[in-house]
Sequence to fold (951 residues):
Amino acid sequence: MGANVDTRASPPPRKRLRTEDTSAAQPAKQEPRLFAPFRALGLITNSVPFVLQTRSHKGATDGPRIHLVTCLGKAWAMWEGGKMGLLFVGPDAPSPIASMAMDGNAVWVSSGPYVIKYLRGKEVERLSNPLESSLSHILIFGKQLLALTDDGSRMLVWDTESGELQTTIQFEPDFTAIMIHHPATYLNKVLVASSQGNMHLWNIRTQTLIHTFAAASLLTSPSNTTSTAITALARSPAIDVVGIGFSSGEISVYDIRADERLMRMVMQDGGIRALSFRSDGHPILATASSTGHIALWDLNSGGRLLHLVRGAHDGAVTALEWVPGQPVLVSSGEDNSVKQWLFDSPTDAPRLLKFRSGHHAPPHLIRYYGEDGKQILTASRDRSLRCTSVVRDSRSFELSQGSLAKKAANLSIPIASLKFPPISALSYSTTRSKDWDDILTAHTDEAVARTWTMKDKRLGKHVFTVAGEKKKGIAVGSVKAVCVTACGNFGIVASSTGVINMYNMQSGILRRTFDVGPCPSNVPSRFRPTANGKKKQERCITGLASDALDRVLVASTLDGTINFFDFHTAALEHTLVLPSSAVSITLHRDSGLLAVICDDLVVRIVDIETRRIVRELGGFRGRVLDLTFSPDSRWLVTTSMDSIIRTFDIPTGRLIDLFRTSSVATSVSFSPTNDFLATSHVDSVGVYLWANRAQYSEVSFQSIVEEDVVDVSLPSMQGVAEDEALDALSALTVQDQPTDVFVTPPQLDGDLVTLTLLPRSRWQTLLNLEVIQQRNKPKEPPKQPEKAPFFLPTLPGVEPRFALEQKKAEDKKKKETRRLQRAAGSTESVFFKKLSEAHESDSSDYEDFFNYAKALSPAAMDLELRALVTLDALQMFLAALTSRLRSHRDFEAVQTFMNVFLRLHGDVLATNAELQHDLETLAEAQHKESERLLELLASSLGTLGFVRDTM
Fold:
């Protein structure tokens, strides 16, 4: 093929790192040096049921307002029900939230052994369990708060106004309480359900057990071997009637006053997770199962099934609530979504009105989309491709894969089973995004790659295959890598069998095929693919990349080679053999740097122009999962199985930042605007943003070692309240201020003479200022031209003549008042004030005074020296010159000031005996410093002459 094979497997030589003593180093900080936790994206709800609250305002014409409070793990979020917009997010609690309740404007949550009260996102009160056990369920009961312990053995009662624990109710040993419910119109009485299937009615005020509802009366045929737990309780519009849901899927409509069951229904798929009675006059009961289905029952017809919404959620439904007085049903599920269902008529099936959703499985591949840094493409194991907005949560959406809901309903299967397999590789180009498809994805164990269009938010028109012509004996591999060129015209796909095809993104036509050829002879034998019989040797392609000008196509293989193709002729031009297998590659198109993740726990950076390895980055303690370049290609950020996110400085090849997260980061992506780093993790469905400190403050780029790693918790949904969020940028500062070794100190040594480093012309101008002013003085003052009158008068006569009046303008000089003269005479200049302050403070070198004097222009300095008219001022200036000479600094400035000062005030100094001592002191210091300077110059000249003669 005429390809050049690079046989140099050894890395280029590197400089030895300087070993420094770290014994005096500061202790490790609690935050990373370069990245600060900012916020989390894509979190909607979890398995904790939401709380719904309606508020009616006087004079409102658009109906009551709906507020939803959902749980986000350790934090909670409040949503506006009209447009499902996020209002605000509460701060993190000490432990994951187990239950929530609302009381007016207050939000109560149980977190570990605490019950915390929030007002507008701020913690205002915290109640503590004296038993120090976790609390599982809470209920606001008038002015009291009821809570169950995690083991279900006790119920605690607090006074919400005073915060005091009023009483503790102990249950029987065979009764494990799991939830509390207050029936309507029942004063001081609550129902307590158990995991054994029975239920108690308690009077909270008297702390007495009023009645026990046995499981035999609540269930049709309770199991003798295993208990059927009560999993849901709901209040009905009818007094004394409640709905009870069981883990077996049975539903009972029960009259607790008569202690009899009125109705029985059964959901076949899974246990009951939530119940809710419709409250706008239609006797309909909505139930939800653990498999994600929602059933609607007609209570007027004895519990007849009206509708069954299969796959309403891609997981268990956690909560179900009818909006009071409206035909709207709100549901939430473990699939990280909240949905509103609208009923157009009492008998019609519900339709999805609005929703907020995110990934219900942790995303494993994230990439910033576009150049504005406002959108992130995320792929997850839930078989979906989503666009997550960094700016506003309401702008996030899932790219459509077609009308799968209707197909799933007809086939009675989950929607997720009809979606494409999880995405394994992703590439895009926004250059032609308004014209045709701009995203290309590869899927797990599929022989095709699919196009997507961000503009239409859906699946694209084309499917690119790597099969080619079907021939006997030729295996069809799966797509392993994809690449969209920078121009957006071509999409390239590569397979596990070594096939590389290039398609046109607009028409979907196959344009070119690239062949990697046989494995080079210098590839180590342990990486060589094996060929069985007459079958062609298959080389798995692990990565694709094209440069910014469509000149070179780079392909990496599993046997450890980097192949460079000519983009237009498809000829293999060069093959670079690596010492290890290449797992994946990432190209920074602007700089031409190619980062290769190798199987020997080393990241190698290749320059695609010289086609050589330029850097090797190591130190990983686990397999490298993903990496990303900073927009200026200065940094390389990596994530690995050791749960550490490392940042390398590419020019020096040194590690400049590392921090350990609570869970392994599966993917990282750097914002094109250089402000945020986005990460996804194995145990969370969200995308986490880390603010780049270098954008907001000065950051030290000193190299660090692996032992300097710090443990950092993941960012929260908001982290702090709104007013504290405004101060977030002020916290993005690095505490340590490293010393700059390139800054020259004010004085190298005390025995040397230091000059001001100012230009020589400044001192020459000050010395000859009078000559310069005399030379530049104008010969005569400028004359103002006469102004012609608006109307020109004429003289009488035959010939027209103008009558020009000769106006003698006499300038009247305005005399200044005596008050202004006194004020001007009493004011002191900044020059004199600094001189006086330095003299009074007994300054040793008059540093501030001389810094100000050096900043003055020659004319201003001459004026200030002329203004020194009193004997005290003259004496202070003489002392300043003497002190500065003794400090061995600003030698030429002191000489210039002394020359001008003696020329202006020499006669005054000679006639006043009070200044004789100061003059003698100055003369002595001047003589000593002049001799010192001459000695230093002679020594330097002698050394220079010796060096010149010996060379």
